[in-house]
Each structure stands twice: as C-alpha cells, then as structure tokens.
What we know:
The chain is mostly helical. Among the domains are: 34-61 and 109-192 and 316-440, Na+/H+ antiporter like fold (Up-down Bundle), CATH 1.20.1530.10; 455-625, Glutaredoxin (3-Layer(aba) Sandwich), CATH 3.40.30. The chain contains 25 helices and 7 strands. It has a 5-stranded mixed β-sheet, sandwiched between helices. Strands 1-2 form a two-stranded antiparallel sheet. Helix 11 (260-275) packs antiparallel against helix 12. The chain is globular, with a radius of gyration of 28 Å. The model is unreliable at 1-20 (pLDDT under 50).
Amino acid sequence: xxxxxxxxxxxxxxxxxxxxxxxxxxxxxxxxxxxxxxxxxxxxxxxxxxxxxxxxxxxxxxxxxxxxxxxxxxxxxxxxxxxxxxxxxxxxxxxxxxxxxxxxxxxxxxxxxxxxxxxxxxxxxxxxxxxxxxxxxxxxxxxxxxxxxxxxxxxxxxxxxxxxxxxxxxxxxxxxxxxxxxxxxxxxxxxxxxxxxxxxxxxxxxxxxxxxxxxxxxxxxxxxxxxxxxxxxxxxxxxxxxxxxxxxxxxxxxxxxxxxxxxxxxxxxxxxxxxxxxxxxxxxxxxxxxxxxxxxxxxxxxxxxxxxxxxxxxxxxxxxxxxxxxxxxxxxxxxxxxxxxxxxxxxxxxxxxxxxxxxxxxxxxxxxxxxxxxxxxxxxxxxxxxxxxxxxxxxxxxxxxxxxxxxxxxxxxxxxxxxxxxxxxxxxxxxxxxxxxxxxxxxxxxxxxxxxxxxxxxxxxxxxxxxxxxxxxxxxxxxxxxxxxxxxxxxxxxxxxxxxxxxxxxxxxxxxxxxxxxxxxxxxxxxxxxxxxxxxxxxxxxxxxxxxxxxxxxxxxxxxxxxxxxxxxxxxxxxxxxxxxxxxxxxxxxxxxxxxxxxxxxxxxxxxxxxxxxxxxxxxxxxxxxx
Length: 627
C-alpha cells in the first residue's frame, strides 16, 4: 500500500510541471518503453524457438504497392525500417521544431550545457568503438553507438530514477534532440553508398514546398502530409535512407502558440454557432478552432500514439530477434564488435555526457536546470547508453555480414541491461551520499504572501488563497484572468486573490506594463490598471500607458515619474525572483495556498483545488484544536 501511495504521489508530481504537450509526450514515451521490452523479448523468444523459421519467413515476405507501372516492392523488414520508421523520425523532427519554436529550447541559453554534453556523448562512444574495432567492415559500426533511444531512456528513468525527475527529463530531452539530429544525419550521409540525382532533386523540391507552405501560413495539414510522402518516396529512389527525409520534413513543419486574435475569432464563431447551430456555422467553427493549433502540434497529436504504441514496438519485433542457439551467444561475447558496442554505449555515453556537462558548468558556459545535480546528470548519462531503436537501425545499414549484425545486436541488447543497472546504481549512490533525490522544480510559494507588499483582492485573512504569476502580454493570462474572475465570484468573501509579476522575455512590453500597474498602485488604482492592461494587450507602448492613466483619472505626471522609479522596477524583479524560487517558469502559474497548482487552470479545476485546500486546512486546524 505504501508503494502505491508513493507511486501515486510521484505521478501527481510529474504532471503540471511542464507544458501539456511535453507532459503528454513523456507519458507516451514512458509507456512505450514497456511495449519495447515486451516486443524485444517476444522477438528473442520467437527467434530462439522451434518456430524460428516462421520469424525469418515473416519479415522476408515481399509486399508490393502499385499504381499501373509505378509502385514500391520491399520485404516487410524493409517496410518497417524504411517506411514505418520514417514516421518515427518525422515525429522526432516535429518535436524538435516545436521545442525550438515555443518549447523548452526557446531560451537558447538552456541549450549550452546539453549541447556540450551531447557532443561528448557522440564523440567519445564512437572513439571507444573504433579503439576496439579500428579496421575492416567492423569499423563501419561506429555509428551504432552514437544514438540514444528516447522512449527507452524515459521509461527506465521513470523506473530507476529519482522519485520526481521532471527537470532531469527536460535536460535529457534537450540532449536527445541534439543526439537525434546527429544520428539521422549520420544515417543519411555516412551510410549512403550511391546517390541518384533526379530523385534527390525531387526530394529537395518537396522539402522546399513544405517550407513554402509554412511561409504562406497554410494551416491545413494535408498539403504538408502529401509533400512528406513525396519526399519519402523520392529519398528512397535517391539511395538515401528515408529517415533523413522524415527528420528534415518534421523540422520544417511550423509550430506556434495560438495568438489572441485567433482565439477571439474562434470564440466569436463558437458563440455564433451556439446561437444558430447550422451546418455551415459548424464547419466554420471547426475550421477556426483548428487554425488556433499549429499544424505541427496537430500532426504530433495524431501520430504520437501510433508511433509510440505501434511503430516502435513493431520495429523492435522486426529487428531484435537474434538466434543465440548453438554457441552463437558465446561467439558473440568473444567478438570485439559486441564489446565495442557495449563499451561505446555504456562507458562512452556515461563519461562523454557526464564530463561534458561537468566541464560546461565548471567553465561557466551554462548551468544545469534548477533541481538537477551532478549525480542526476551522471545517472541520466548512464541511461543514455540505451541505444536500441537507432542502434538497431544503423546495424542493418552498417554491416552486410550477418555475423557482424548478430554480434552488434547482442551488444545493443546487453547495453540496455548494463546501462539500466548502472543508472540505477548511480541514482542510489547520489541519493544516499549526495542527498540528490528529487530532480524537480520547487513547489512551495517563496516568499509567502505578504499583505504589506503583495496586491491582494479580497480580505487579507480570507479562508483560501489563489496566487497568480502573470504577464500582461500573455494571451493565456488574459484568458486566465477571466478564469480568476469566475473563481472569485464563486468563493466571494472566502477568497483572497494575489497577483505577482512574471514578464516573459518574448514579450517586449510586459515588464514596462508590470511597472505601470505598480505605478497605478501607488495611487490606489492597481486593480483598475490591471484590468485595463489586459483589455489592451496589443497596445502597451509608453504613450499608451500614459493614456490609460489619464482614462483612470490618475495624476499623469506622477504616474510617468513612477514609471521611471527604480524602486518599482525592483519590485517587479523581486516578483520574478520569487517566481524562479517557487518553480514558476511560464504564465499563468497559479498557487493554491502555498502550493503550486499543476495541470489545467480552468475555473472548475481551480475551484476544486481551492476547496480541497480549504478542507485540508480545516482538518489540520481540527487536529490542532483537539491536541
């Protein structure tokens, strides 16, 4: 029972610390790891059973798709590796583009340490492998050890890592982004022998077409999908491995946050449909709602589940089946290829990533994510030695010899076991001797609400407290402010609502707007200015703010002087430091009482969370009174 409660708390802690898309991605990848293990064990059992010939016969079966004289004909094994895996790498490309555009990698400073660590985790494994296999066909296998299987990595992290590992996951995801790009580039360049220029030009034109669709703001998904299919077929015809087409296409599909204008149009359409539910309005409403979500995220939402739950496990089933009978395992364990793969993945990844991250931080080139220690990084580096998916794919490209393929696959499978055990050991030692247990953002409000400095709407001694970190240029804060109004209306005098500032770097006027609210607060009109700023989010220039002060009846000259007052600017910076200390990384971020709210922030969810906090507080007071 205790273990179930701990697991439940772990799951609850993992949700809400990241954006919804990233949380969903992590859940899918962690579950996919379990399916990978099952598929791999099934493949091994099948390949070593009396029915092993059926395993080989299945994947050698030829499947043809033809339209007149045009068509493709490949074995099922090649359809999996050259067809289904294109979708896998396309999804990887989509994820990278989204993280660069609107996700964790928009802050380029966060990329420095993972970039250096990732470089170490690419170079050192390849050097170790080549040290053991310096010549001949075996030397072609150096690319096997450079990739990391993100699904397996996150799955094992959930099993053997810290109880709460959200920040470490962000670091490792950033690192695997770099890893994936390099690995696919290696597949496309180092393991391509012959190129056909005509199909290559067609593939390039298809990719250019995707870029053009982005620039033309095309919001429907089907034109992008059509061009991806053209790029895939052309890449196959050119002699390149199609994974490179998948990755490049994904990187070109646009990702963007919904704009306030888009949400307002969608809302107005929905209201019109609600008043007059006609088929034409239904179609227009659906289209406007679809426009608000980028093509990138819609394709990810569509493809993530089949990729994680079907494509990757099927790939494992098709590639992990190695017949180890008749002394084959013993021969593999005497092969330098096997040990080159094991040493490259386990030793190379652990030392390359670990020392790369340590060197970057010691040289002051960057810093680790908040809550992540050196032990966490080293444990995550060890788990990065799980190369599986990319490694198995490169094996089929690097070696023509079935013996070398077999030895390399054995090395990859053993590396999964050894890397997982090593990661577990490092995490255990880090927790025991370094006190590095959780690798997560803080969850408590710091400092607590202070009526002498914080802006409080309602009675300062009210029963429940809702704190919001906000940004006056953030369209989601404008929507959340409406949510906060609903919450205040529900609780009435039972609630106090507190605002703190968190102007984001991508919003150039947000910090000045925050100072303007504070300047209005000096004249007793903070909440009036607060409401006015959200009503005019697209008009926050200096002269606009002066006009709002006049509309609100403020002393405009005093207001303008206060806009330049360093004391008010320092007040905003103190709120920003408070957000960092409290684990608030984006806006809006809510705190229910002293605890950071995680997950959805619609009115119903916040009301339920506040009611639970009120009930819990009442119960605690009851216990104290009985004592």
